[in-house]
Amino acid sequence: MVLLTQGLVPPGAAWAASGYPYSMPADLSGVWAAGVLGTVDGGAVTTCNSERAPVSAVGLAPGGTERMRISAPAQGWRALSGCSTNTAVDGQNRYFAPYVDHNTDDVVQIGGFDPTGTRLWHTPVRTSCSSYRYWTQVHSLAIGADGNLYALVYNHDCRSENVRLLSLDRTTGAVRFDRPLSANAAVSQYGYLGSFPLMSPHRTGVTVLDGSSVRHVDHDGTVRPDAAEVVRGYDTVITGFSVNAAGDAFVAVDQLDNQGSSCVRHVQRVDLDGTSRVHGLTNAVGWCTATRGMRATPDGGVVLSTYGRHTDPMITVSASGETSSAFAPVTGAVVQHVTAPQVDLDGNVYVARFLTYTGSGDEHVEVRQTDRRGRLLAVHNTGAQPTVARDTIGTPHHGEGLALTQDAVLLVTCVQPEHCNLGRMNNGPTPPLTLWRLPFKGASIDYPRGDLLGQSGRGTGPLRHVALGDSFSSGEAVKPYTAPSDANGCHRSALAYAELVDQDRTLDFTTDFRACSGATTATVQVPANGEPAQLSALGDDTRLVTLTIGGNDVKFSDFAKACVSGSCGVDSARYRESKALVDFVLPGLLDDLYAKIALRARDAEVWVLGYPQLIAGDADFTPCRYLGPLDVDIDETDQAGARTLVTALNDTIRDRVGARGTKFHYLDPAPLFEGHELCSTRDWPYFYGPQVPELGSSYHPNAAGQAAYAELVKEQAIRQHLGW
User: Fold this and answer.
1) DSSP class of 444
2) What is the C-alpha to C-alpha distance for residues 554 and 582, in angstroms, rounded to an integer?
3) Which of 55, 117, 129, 284 is most deeply packed, by most CB within 10 A?
4) Are strands 463-469 and 542-548 parallel, antiparallel or unpaired?
């Protein structure tokens, strides 16, 4: 762990690369919101929404020099709108924002600006009943993965068609499509209309929180019919919305009972296919909390900053829905306020906290960086400052005054609290707003925006391995099983290859073990055995995926049982059924599954493990008998059927893996298992024989077989291919 503590120079100093504050222009009179966005080259753009501000937007280079300044009133415009929920910056530092144009009868426009602030184009924003600025609001503006602009337009005066999704060509401003959404979006469901974006892009389109429904819209404007209703109840308020790069949406819901006395705070997840479920209870960590801000994480979970009766904790909800508190108390200080979090492309989490020290009464602003496990990586503390308004660090009313850029965190603060309530108009003196650039090694532009702009993470922290698949991966028959898999039938063994890889301290990997006995190509994609879908563990921070899959799709377990209780030769009915499934059904199932893995784990190397031969080859084979409740003979007929079917199964898997391209690899287990099959004359077997009464556990790798699988993964997939 690296702990960095740095006192920063007073506002007004130059912003140097080492991390100093930038004082915003003094003519930001009457400002009531300030937001900041990081740029891909390490700079920043800050936007100030004001009825009177002569300077509306400033762009800064990585070194702090001013490279863009937009003055809305000088152009006959008013209120270059809002903060970073409805402004956008592309990879070429072009800036996009809505504003009101007095030159065109107060029509709301969306404008595109070059890196110096020169307007390139402008497009009027109209709804079906009004274009007047007081009734029309561009609530969310973002750049999609296809490079086009997407805007969510809300009109306060229309009740028949008041929410529309607009897409513009970001180069010319031409309208690509204009889609009506909800017929009557109940804005009262949201804790605060401007507190979080209601639209977020992902790799294949955009997702919109439309009233109480989550809707997915493709890049061509097609609105998918599988909208999911958010969980509703008495006094339900939606207080957060975030979408990951794969298109999975998360909604924070605060709900009181009918007496208004006990609270239920939960996160609801809506996958791209429309599947909806409660994903985690955020008050399960011991107190009743309400959401201040929420961000999706690359591993398929979310992180929330919350406030409750006693403190301001950070809460993480994992990809599987497990909830934990990441709140770290500060010795000798009281945490007065926590901003909405930000997440980088590696899954590291950043949050600013306002602290009051109990002895001296000094007030500090602290920014913390933690990894996805909640471990503290670095912290910056401003040291004692002139009175910093507790409610104005990071402009919490909009949640966007904390931003990320390359190797740095950007933070807006305000001194002199009597003039610094950024959430309402004020007529007092100019508030001294300050933009801080705090160096954090390994930080990257925020997720998922950076992903959609084609950026990559910095590779900080342990790499993430997700182990998927069926019983050959779960460790079926190798007892004891870990909870809860011992009760739900997934039968994950503490000695399975995934666990052995995770225990190797020479590898800087964390393993998410999801394999489940009995899994098929279909069941890994949906919740099963009381657990989330195995694929839900995949995310943009996944570096390595391993799996065995396909055996249950071809009824290999039934085939193995036939070998125990009857015959499994090439002339048997069981063999013919399984062989037909291998030849005619399995290829398409594998193609579909591999495509979905590639979509969810874009940067991962995927290693598909083959199935080892269970029975020795001709050179080492001798007929053998397993004594027990059933006396089982394995003869040449069984040997030929079993080896032929396993060969055909592996050939199909190898062929479909090869068709996926360079990110997918086939791992052949034969070299490590040869000579260790059942009925071999060479060495002790790596398999269990017939298991009675648990016939389903028959013919699975034993502890030595799982160790062989682990060595195969570590040596070929990790050390040789990934260079560890």
Assistant:
1) -
2) 6
3) 55
4) parallel
* C-alpha 495: how far from chain center: 29
Q: Give the amino acid at 457.
A: G
The secondary structure of residue 10, as a DSSP letter, is P
Closest Cα to residue 516, out of 525, 507, 508? Answer: 525
For the stretch 476-483, contacts whose Cβ atoms lie closer than 8 Å and that sit 24 or more positions apart, written own/partner, are 476/517, 476/696, 476/697, 476/700, 477/688, 477/691, 477/694, 477/697, 477/698, 477/700, 477/702, 478/700, 478/701, 478/702, 478/703, 478/706
Q: Output DSSP code: residue 306.
A: E
Contact 315, 303 (CB under 8 A): yes
The token pair that represents 127 in the structure block? 């709804």
- Residues 253 and 282: their CA atoms lie apart, in Å, by 10
User: Where does 301-375 show beta strands of DSSP type E?
Assistant: 302-308, 314-317, 323-325, 333-338, 342-343, 349-357, 363-370
Whether the Cβ atoms of residue 121 and residue 149 lie closer than 8 Å to each other: no
Residues 6+ apart with CB under 8 A from 34: 24, 28, 46, 47, 48, 49, 83, 395, 401, 412, 422, 433
Residues 6+ apart with CB under 8 A from 604: 466, 538, 542, 543, 544, 545, 597, 663
On whether the CB atoms of residues 612 and 670 are closer than 8 A, the answer is yes
HSE-CB at 625 with a 13 A cutoff on CA atoms is 5
Sheet hosting strand 175-180, strand order edge to edge: 136-143, 149-155, 163-168, 175-180
Closest C-alpha to 106, from 84, 136, 143, 68: 136
Q: Which residues contact 261 (CB under 8 A, 6 or more apart)?
A: none
Which neighbouring-strand residues pair with 379? 368
**β-strand partners of 465:** 511, 544
Question: What backbone torsions phi and psi does residue 74 show, to the nearest 5 degrees?
Answer: -65, -20
**Which pTM was predicted?**
0.67
Q: 713 with 669: CB under 8 angstroms?
A: no
Cα distance between residue 666 and residue 356, in whole Å = 57
Amino acid in position 225: P
- Tokens 């050959």 sit on residue: 472
Provide block-wise average pLDDT over 10 residues at a time, the chain (724 residues).
24 37 48 70 74 65 82 67 67 88 76 92 72 66 94 67 84 93 48 63 91 87 81 70 90 67 71 77 59 84 72 69 66 74 90 78 79 74 54 43 85 58 43 73 88 78 86 94 93 94 77 95 95 90 92 91 79 93 96 94 92 87 68 80 94 96 92 89 84 73 94 84 58
What's the per-residue H, E or C state across 641-685? HHHHHHHHHHHHHHHHHHCCCCCEEEECCHHHHCCCCECECCCCC
Q: Which residues are catalytic?
A: 471, 700
DSSP state of 208: E
618 exposed, middle or buried (CB, 10 Å; 0-12, 13-18, 19+)? Answer: exposed
As a whole number of angstroms, the distance between CA 258 and CA 455 comes to: 47
Question: In the numeric block, which tokens belong to residue 671?
Answer: 């070299």
**Pick from 177, 28, 36: which is nearest to 95 by CA?**
36
By the 8 A CB rule, do 393 and 352 touch?
Answer: yes
Cα three-residue angle 513-654-672, rounded to 5 degrees: 65
Q: Which two tokens stand for residue 633?
A: 């003979």
Q: Which two tokens stand for residue 163?
A: 């929410």
What the block records as the tokens of 196 is: 């979080």
Give the Cα-Cα-Cα angle 269, 273, 275 (nearest 5 degrees).
Answer: 40
